[in-house]
Design goal:
The chain is mostly helical. The chain is 44% helix and 0% strand. The chain has nine helices and no strands. One of its GO terms (molecular function) is chitinase activity.
Protein backbone atom coordinates (compact mmCIF):
# COMPACT_ATOMS: atom_id res chain seq x y z
CA UNK A 1 0.00 0.00 0.00
CA UNK A 2 1.33 3.44 -0.88
CA UNK A 3 2.11 5.88 1.88
CA UNK A 4 -0.50 8.51 2.69
CA UNK A 5 -0.08 11.63 0.53
CA UNK A 6 1.85 14.44 2.19
CA UNK A 7 -0.15 17.41 3.38
CA UNK A 8 0.82 20.73 4.92
CA UNK A 9 4.34 20.73 6.34
CA UNK A 10 4.77 17.20 5.02
CA UNK A 11 2.23 15.74 7.50
CA UNK A 12 0.03 13.03 5.93
CA UNK A 13 -3.56 14.08 5.38
CA UNK A 14 -4.77 11.25 7.65
CA UNK A 15 -2.98 12.92 10.56
CA UNK A 16 -4.49 16.36 10.11
CA UNK A 17 -6.73 17.44 12.99
CA UNK A 18 -10.26 18.35 11.94
CA UNK A 19 -11.91 21.67 12.81
CA UNK A 20 -9.00 22.58 15.05
CA UNK A 21 -9.38 19.43 17.17
CA UNK A 22 -6.02 18.36 18.58
CA UNK A 23 -6.80 14.68 17.93
CA UNK A 24 -6.51 13.50 14.34
CA UNK A 25 -8.66 10.77 12.86
CA UNK A 26 -5.65 8.44 12.75
CA UNK A 27 -4.85 9.12 16.41
CA UNK A 28 -8.47 8.52 17.40
CA UNK A 29 -8.46 5.21 15.51
CA UNK A 30 -5.22 4.16 17.23
CA UNK A 31 -6.76 4.87 20.63
CA UNK A 32 -9.85 2.77 19.85
CA UNK A 33 -8.87 -0.06 17.49
CA UNK A 34 -11.91 -2.17 18.42
CA UNK A 35 -14.48 0.62 18.68
CA UNK A 36 -18.12 0.12 17.85
CA UNK A 37 -18.88 1.81 14.53
CA UNK A 38 -21.54 3.84 16.36
CA UNK A 39 -18.78 5.96 17.90
CA UNK A 40 -17.45 7.88 14.92
CA UNK A 41 -14.76 10.51 14.87
CA UNK A 42 -16.95 12.75 12.73
CA UNK A 43 -19.80 12.59 15.25
CA UNK A 44 -17.43 13.61 18.03
CA UNK A 45 -16.05 16.53 16.05
CA UNK A 46 -19.58 17.61 15.15
CA UNK A 47 -20.70 17.40 18.78
CA UNK A 48 -17.88 19.65 19.92
CA UNK A 49 -19.71 22.68 18.51
CA UNK A 50 -21.99 22.48 21.57
CA UNK A 51 -19.01 23.13 23.89
CA UNK A 52 -16.42 25.13 21.93
CA UNK A 53 -14.15 25.52 24.96
CA UNK A 54 -13.50 21.79 25.08
CA UNK A 55 -9.90 21.02 23.99
CA UNK A 56 -9.67 24.64 22.79
CA UNK A 57 -8.75 26.31 26.09
CA UNK A 58 -5.24 27.17 27.23
CA UNK A 59 -1.91 26.19 25.76
CA UNK A 60 -1.45 23.49 23.13
CA UNK A 61 -0.33 21.12 25.89
CA UNK A 62 -3.44 21.81 27.95
CA UNK A 63 -5.66 21.26 24.92
CA UNK A 64 -4.01 17.90 24.26
CA UNK A 65 -4.24 16.93 27.92
CA UNK A 66 -7.94 17.68 27.97
CA UNK A 67 -8.60 15.61 24.87
CA UNK A 68 -6.54 12.75 26.29
CA UNK A 69 -8.28 12.99 29.67
CA UNK A 70 -11.76 13.01 28.17
CA UNK A 71 -11.06 10.10 25.84
CA UNK A 72 -9.35 8.10 28.60
CA UNK A 73 -12.42 8.34 30.82
CA UNK A 74 -14.62 7.54 27.83
CA UNK A 75 -12.52 4.48 27.05
CA UNK A 76 -12.79 3.24 30.62
CA UNK A 77 -16.55 3.75 30.73
CA UNK A 78 -17.21 1.94 27.43
CA UNK A 79 -14.54 -0.75 27.27
CA UNK A 80 -12.67 1.08 24.53
CA UNK A 81 -15.75 2.57 22.83
CA UNK A 82 -17.20 -0.92 22.44
CA UNK A 83 -20.32 -0.61 24.61
CA UNK A 84 -23.11 1.84 23.84
CA UNK A 85 -25.28 0.91 26.83
CA UNK A 86 -24.61 -0.24 30.37
CA UNK A 87 -23.96 -3.95 30.42
CA UNK A 88 -25.43 -4.74 33.85
CA UNK A 89 -29.13 -4.78 33.01
CA UNK A 90 -29.99 -5.51 36.64
CA UNK A 91 -29.14 -1.88 37.37
CA UNK A 92 -31.60 -0.46 34.86
CA UNK A 93 -34.60 0.02 37.23
CA UNK A 94 -32.42 1.78 39.82
CA UNK A 95 -31.89 4.98 37.82
CA UNK A 96 -35.36 6.48 38.31
CA UNK A 97 -35.62 9.11 41.02
CA UNK A 98 -39.40 9.31 41.29
CA UNK A 99 -39.12 12.23 43.72
CA UNK A 100 -38.35 14.53 40.81
CA UNK A 101 -41.42 16.59 39.83
CA UNK A 102 -41.23 15.34 36.25
CA UNK A 103 -40.85 11.70 37.31
CA UNK A 104 -39.73 9.07 34.83
CA UNK A 105 -42.07 9.46 31.84
CA UNK A 106 -40.14 7.06 29.60
CA UNK A 107 -40.46 4.27 32.19
CA UNK A 108 -38.75 3.38 35.44
CA UNK A 109 -36.06 1.32 33.70
CA UNK A 110 -35.42 3.78 30.86
CA UNK A 111 -32.59 5.89 32.26
CA UNK A 112 -29.73 3.39 32.33
CA UNK A 113 -26.20 4.28 31.25
CA UNK A 114 -25.80 5.20 27.61
CA UNK A 115 -23.14 6.79 25.47
CA UNK A 116 -19.45 7.65 25.90
CA UNK A 117 -19.75 8.59 29.59
CA UNK A 118 -22.73 6.34 30.29
CA UNK A 119 -25.31 9.03 31.02
CA UNK A 120 -27.71 7.68 33.65
CA UNK A 121 -30.55 8.79 35.97
CA UNK A 122 -33.69 10.65 34.93
CA UNK A 123 -32.43 13.95 36.36
CA UNK A 124 -29.27 13.78 34.23
CA UNK A 125 -31.28 13.02 31.09
CA UNK A 126 -33.53 15.98 31.94
CA UNK A 127 -30.64 18.35 32.59
CA UNK A 128 -28.61 17.25 29.58
CA UNK A 129 -31.65 17.47 27.34
CA UNK A 130 -32.51 20.95 28.57
CA UNK A 131 -28.94 22.13 27.97
CA UNK A 132 -28.79 20.60 24.49
CA UNK A 133 -32.40 21.51 23.55
CA UNK A 134 -33.31 17.85 23.06
CA UNK A 135 -36.12 16.08 24.95
CA UNK A 136 -34.03 13.28 26.43
CA UNK A 137 -36.36 12.86 29.39
CA UNK A 138 -39.07 11.48 27.11
CA UNK A 139 -36.69 10.05 24.49
CA UNK A 140 -33.62 8.67 26.29
CA UNK A 141 -33.01 6.17 23.48
CA UNK A 142 -31.67 9.02 21.36
CA UNK A 143 -28.42 8.67 23.31
CA UNK A 144 -27.96 5.12 22.01
CA UNK A 145 -29.24 5.69 18.48
CA UNK A 146 -27.83 9.11 17.48
CA UNK A 147 -24.01 9.20 17.63
CA UNK A 148 -23.72 12.98 17.75
CA UNK A 149 -26.27 13.26 20.56
CA UNK A 150 -24.38 10.55 22.44
CA UNK A 151 -21.13 12.52 22.21
CA UNK A 152 -22.93 15.74 23.14
CA UNK A 153 -24.22 14.23 26.38
CA UNK A 154 -20.69 13.19 27.30
CA UNK A 155 -19.39 16.66 26.54
CA UNK A 156 -22.28 18.16 28.55
CA UNK A 157 -21.26 16.20 31.62
CA UNK A 158 -17.55 16.86 31.11
CA UNK A 159 -17.95 20.61 30.71
CA UNK A 160 -20.78 21.43 33.10
CA UNK A 161 -21.13 18.82 35.85
CA UNK A 162 -18.94 18.29 38.92
CA UNK A 163 -20.68 15.12 40.13
CA UNK A 164 -19.19 14.05 43.45
CA UNK A 165 -16.19 16.32 42.83
CA UNK A 166 -15.61 20.00 43.49
CA UNK A 167 -15.16 21.08 39.87
CA UNK A 168 -16.01 19.99 36.36
CA UNK A 169 -13.62 17.72 34.51
CA UNK A 170 -12.98 20.54 32.06
CA UNK A 171 -11.98 22.83 34.92
CA UNK A 172 -9.77 20.14 36.40
CA UNK A 173 -7.59 20.08 33.32
CA UNK A 174 -7.56 23.73 32.27
CA UNK A 175 -6.78 24.97 35.80
CA UNK A 176 -4.02 22.41 36.33
CA UNK A 177 -5.82 20.58 39.15
CA UNK A 178 -4.95 17.35 37.35
CA UNK A 179 -6.42 14.23 35.84
CA UNK A 180 -7.29 12.79 39.25
CA UNK A 181 -9.96 15.45 39.65
CA UNK A 182 -11.65 14.32 36.43
CA UNK A 183 -12.00 10.86 37.96
CA UNK A 184 -13.47 12.40 41.10
CA UNK A 185 -16.03 14.35 39.09
CA UNK A 186 -17.09 11.31 37.06
CA UNK A 187 -17.02 8.48 39.58
CA UNK A 188 -15.28 9.73 42.68
CA UNK A 189 -17.76 8.23 45.13
CA UNK A 190 -16.79 4.74 43.94
CA UNK A 191 -13.16 5.08 42.85
CA UNK A 192 -11.45 7.78 44.92
CA UNK A 193 -10.09 7.90 48.48
CA UNK A 194 -8.87 4.30 48.36
CA UNK A 195 -12.02 2.77 46.88
CA UNK A 196 -11.69 0.55 43.78
CA UNK A 197 -8.13 1.64 43.14
CA UNK A 198 -7.80 -0.77 40.20
CA UNK A 199 -10.60 1.06 38.38
CA UNK A 200 -8.99 4.40 39.10
CA UNK A 201 -5.60 3.13 37.92
CA UNK A 202 -7.09 1.89 34.66
CA UNK A 203 -8.26 5.42 33.92
CA UNK A 204 -4.80 6.78 34.76
CA UNK A 205 -3.07 4.23 32.54
CA UNK A 206 -5.36 5.07 29.63
CA UNK A 207 -4.73 8.78 30.15
CA UNK A 208 -0.97 8.31 30.10
CA UNK A 209 -1.18 6.26 26.91
CA UNK A 210 -3.47 8.72 25.16
CA UNK A 211 -1.35 11.70 26.24
CA UNK A 212 1.66 9.95 24.72
CA UNK A 213 -0.23 9.41 21.46
CA UNK A 214 -1.02 13.14 21.43
CA UNK A 215 2.60 14.08 22.25
CA UNK A 216 1.65 15.78 25.51
CA UNK A 217 3.06 15.40 28.99
CA UNK A 218 0.37 14.10 31.37
CA UNK A 219 1.08 16.62 34.12
CA UNK A 220 0.78 15.93 37.85
CA UNK A 221 -1.95 14.88 40.32
CA UNK A 222 -3.06 11.93 38.22
CA UNK A 223 -4.83 9.96 40.98
CA UNK A 224 -7.62 10.78 43.39
Amino acid sequence: MADAPPGRDGVPVSLWPVAGFVVSRAQFDSMFPSKNRFYTYDALVGAMSAYPGFAHTGSDTVKRREAAAFLANVSHETGGLVHIVEQNTANYPTYCDARQPYGCPAGKAAYYGRGPLQLSWNFNYKAAGDALHIDLLHSPNLVQTNPQIAWKTALWYWNTQSGPGSMTAHQAIVTGAGFGQTIRSINGALECNGRNTAQMQDRVNLYKRFAQILHASPGTNLTC
